[in-house]
Structures are given as C-alpha cells and as structure tokens.
Amino acid sequence: MYLLGYDIGSSSVKAALVDAESGACVASDFYPKTEAPIKAVCQGWAEQNPADWWKYLKEATASVLAKSNVDPVEIKAIGISYQMHGLVAVDKDRNVLRDAIIWCDSRGVPYGEKAFSEIGAEKCLSHLLNSPGNFTAAKLRWLKEEEPETYAKIYKVMLPGDYIAMRLTGEICTTPEGLSEYMLWDFQTNSPASFLMDYYGFDAGLFPEVKPTFSEQGRLTKEAAAELGLAAGTPVTYRAGDQPNNALSLNVFNPGEIASTAGTSGVVYGINDTVAYDRQSRVNNFAHVNHSADQTRIGVMTCISGTGILNTWIKRNVAPQGIDYAEMNELAAKAPVGSLGVTILPFGNGAERVLGNRQVECSFHGINFNIHNRSHVLRAAQEGIVFSFMYGMEIMESMGLKIDRIHAGNANMFLSPIFRDTLASVSGATIALVDTDGAAGAAKGAGIGAGIYRDNREAFGTLKVLGLIEPASDRTPYLEAYARWKNILENNLR
Q1: Are the beta carbons of 181 and 88 closer than 8 angstroms?
Q2: For the residues 136-156, what does the mean pLDDT come to?
Q3: Phi, psi (5° rounding) for residue 412?
Q4: Closest CA to 423 of 380, 470, 485
Q5: Looking at residues 35-48, what average pLDDT do you find?
Q6: How far apart are CA 366 and CA 369, in angstroms?
Q7: How many other C-beta atoms lie within 10 A of the C-beta of residue 316?
C-alpha cells in the first residue's frame, strides 16, 4: 500500500511515493530540471502558467512510477503541498483566464495597506491575525480593479494547490488553512472572513467550498488518471501550503514545536494554541493543518529574506576562491563564538516583514583591520543569520509561543555545525535534524486524511531523526553576541 505526495513549488514540482507501512520514500523526482520560469511583465510582478505546473506534475508522476514499478492501484491516497498565496482564476468551463499571480508578486501591497487602514488595525488583527498585506485577497482586488473584463468572467478563484486538485478530481474546494492564506479566514468565528470580502466587493460565490484539511476532497477522474498513469477513483485526502506542510513533514503539530528551514530565505514556523497576534504585524499567522473550532492551532511564521543568499554572497565574494561550503565552514570555525566583535546584519535581500517591511540592507560592523580576518567575517555572517531568526522568535514568544524544540530538515544552512550550534545555544532549544521533504510529507498527510493512519504520531512514527543538537553548556558568549547584534540592529532602525 502506497501514498503519493506532490509539492507544487515555484521552481519545480516534486512527486514522492511513500510505502504506507514502513514510511519509507520508495521513489521521488522533480521537474523541470532547470528552474521553472517566472514571468515579470512589470517590476514587482511574478506570474506562472498553471498549465506548466500540470505538465511538470505529469513528468514527475511518470518518473516515480517508472522508478518504483508500483502498481497504481496500490496507491491509496494523494496529498498536495503547494506554493502559498498564489491566485488562479477560472471560468465556468474550468479554463484558466490568465497566468497565475504567484506568492512573490507585490502588486497587491497597496490594496492590502488600504484595507488595513480603512477597516482598522484592531479589526484586522483580532480577526485575521494579520494585515491583509500582499496576500491572495489583495491580489484579487488588484485584478478586480485593473482587469475588470477578466474579473467579470471568473467562476472560481483558487490557490495553486486547489487548481491542481481540480485538475486531478474535477472538484473545486479549499481548506481553512487555504482561506487563511487568502487572508479570508476569521479566527474569531472560525469561518470565512465576510467583512473583508464585503470590503473588497467580492461575491462569496467566487470562492471554493471549504473542506477539512484531512478529508476526502475528490477522487481522481478517468481523464486525469489516463493522463497520469494512475488509477481512477484514487482519493485526494490532504492539501496545505508549503510552510504548514513543511511543519507537518517535520511532525510539528503542537504548541512548543517549531519547524525551520534555511535556504535562500529562512523560515521559523511555530504552533500557538491561542488566537494571538503581533500588534505591529511583523509575523504571519495561518490556520495550521490541524486547526479547528475545537482545537486552536495557529501557525506563526517569521520569514527572513537574507538567509542562505548572504552565505552564498560571502562564499562568492569573501571566501578563498574555489572552496566549497564544508571548507568554508571549517574556515569560519577558526573564529571564536561572537567572531571577536564582528557583527553582520543580513538584510540585503529586500524589505523584511520582521522589521516592519523596512529595507535595512546588509551591513558589517566592528571590523578591526589589525585583528580580524576572513574567518571572523565568515562566522559573523552565519551568526547574523541565526540572530535574525532569534529576533523573529522573540516576537513569536511575546505572542505566547514556548520554543523548546526546533525540527529542521538536514539541508542548506542546517548542514553547517556553526549555524546549528549557534541557533540551539542562542534560543536554548534542542534542534532535531530530520530526513524528509515536502512531497513525502504530503503523502503522509494523505495517509492521515484517508484514515490509513490514526493520527500524526502513527504517520510520522517512522520519521528518521538524524541527530539532536543541544544548546551549549555555557550559553553566555552566544547570548552576549546576540545582544550586541540586536543593539546594532535597533540603532539602525531608529
């Protein structure tokens, strides 16, 4: 018995086939092999053709079936993870009306800011737990105002994962977590946020039916099955945006548990059991995959844009030419904790929400030409990235989150001992390094939704923990370095 998971990203689509009993991934692949194109017709815009996602999905499916030699009738459920905050619009014949406006498109910003101002911060934050910002609802308002002819033809609007589910099953639906990505979930009433729909002038009929995250959301049609080489009638039983799904993949479901990634940008995603928000809206709040009216589970997310991209810049411009990341980490380790006072603010990849959407830029501080060398700069870069994570985590803690354990995939910046040790020691949390990915997680989510697993403990009981990183016995030098970093940052923000 097998489970199939898809991860619909903006750079590729990945498929993973998981043995339901052992929890092992028996085959996985992704397409395209080079990064998928993003169209930028105007500055700040970012669009993709949803038909391309379907094409990549077909290629990835064919590959995992060929690699595994699994009989498609043995695949008992399908799960979907997807890039968050995108907007797909279809007409009554299910035809896509225009390219999808994806997560990194900023055209919705002024519409979200205007809504926040006119509706009021208290109403928005207490009900949505966020500013309407640049989320999907604001993008749809842009479409309504700037492309009225297209808007008039819309039958339904969907998130990228909803679109893929429609192609698989013919059904159009979403989840509470999905509507919270639109910024259209009211956490006070646990229902769609009609007040924001009314403000933007949206007919509620434009939005899909809401179904539980773990539930049967449709069955594979004969047409889709024929295209994909799968068995007609296979149920789709789980879907979630990529960051909630990443948390699920790392078995992060309950208060005090934190999921983190550190690629080009970095994310810390924690679970809160109270309806709380940051009054400055410096972090994002979404319904987590197991949120319900009876069980509050809010995913609180801080995103740092300048994460791995800083480390890559340092490798390209500061490290000795030709060394790899492992060798660069060894060189950085020659410097002591705190880098003898060298401090780097890593915010050189655009505005940071955690800083109130200010563009602070990257800056280097405290360099003494007589005592510092490459190793201090290399270490300070990694420490600066960690400290930016900690800055966001302090905001999360002020909202009531207790951070005692961080779950992370063994990839990207988490491959660095300096990065891992610094994060564990400055936060005081144990880091569990886990062998998984989003597509495999979506497959296991489908197992929960199909009733194959009783709960997440059974679904992820076989998850392989590769190692535990404990805080240093003496955290003082880490905390002193963070205090210095934070003081420099706050002076820059004045």
Answers
A1: no
A2: 98
A3: 55, -130
A4: 470
A5: 91
A6: 10
A7: 9
